[in-house]
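Q: what does this look like with magnesium ion bound?
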Amino acid sequence: MDEKAVVLIVDDANINVRALEHILKGDYQVKMATGGMEALACIAKDPKLDLILLDVSMPDIGGYDLCRRLKSDPKTADIPIIFLTGKDSSADEEHGLSLGAVDYITKPIRPLIVKARIKTHVTLKRQYDLLRAMATRDALTGLHNRHYLSDALKEKISYAMHHRLPLSLMIIDIDHFKRINDTYGHLVGDHVLTAVAQILLEHVRQEDIAARFGGEEFVIVLDNCSVHDACVKAEIIRQMIENLYPEGIRVSASFGVVQLSDHLDKPAKLLKHADTALYKAKESGRNKVVVCREKLKNTL
Ligand SMILES: [Mg+2]
């Protein structure tokens, strides 16, 4: 959060771009584009922007069109946009704001006003990002929380069912965790959880979900992944945890793996069957991966 916020200036007049850059470069990391197409290319390359300062009249893609496009794409919809334009009628201003822009500033540029308004909206954006991260992440481990998992899993299942793509899920439970807490204390227990979570984070792809499900229980959702591939991954993670020795303590974990199918097509069903497989892993000696074999022949 201490990093400088990133502001993209989009204006077809180079002189405006330079003037704005001069005003903002001390406080922000400034990116520049001299047209709508160039702006789109810049955003596609790095969508992590904190604010866009957008000219309305440009020859290739106009500012209103560009705003509409960005607001309709979930990847860019949350980036605040401020129109900066010579069009100063209230109808223009109303139109700009109706497209989802947070503010509308008319030229000629008054540096202090531009700076103050940008500061307000960048601050709001960063507070929003922070709140969202707090609402969807587990504070101790940095993994997604259970609340996020239940929403995201529902979406992933409906996407996979619709496109007939495989999806697998694993539940991971640290073996004898209560004993670790009782023997070494909760602080050490927390270190063990964080260390295991780090392994999970390192082994999931961008599109997967790694979540803390409960105390010492984790869930990984693997997009476009067969149960066979999920088991290979589970086995790698199991070995990593076995060789981890966080705080010098021997730690192991048990795994229950399940694949989405026409019969297991709801979050609750997938979790329940993964949990049953996990229970079998625990019952048969722990530190192992067990697959839910039920209705495997009907998998997608
Ligand atoms: Mg212009």
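Residues 11-13, 55, 57-58 surround magnesium ion (CB under 6 Å). The chain has two domains: 6-136, 146-298.
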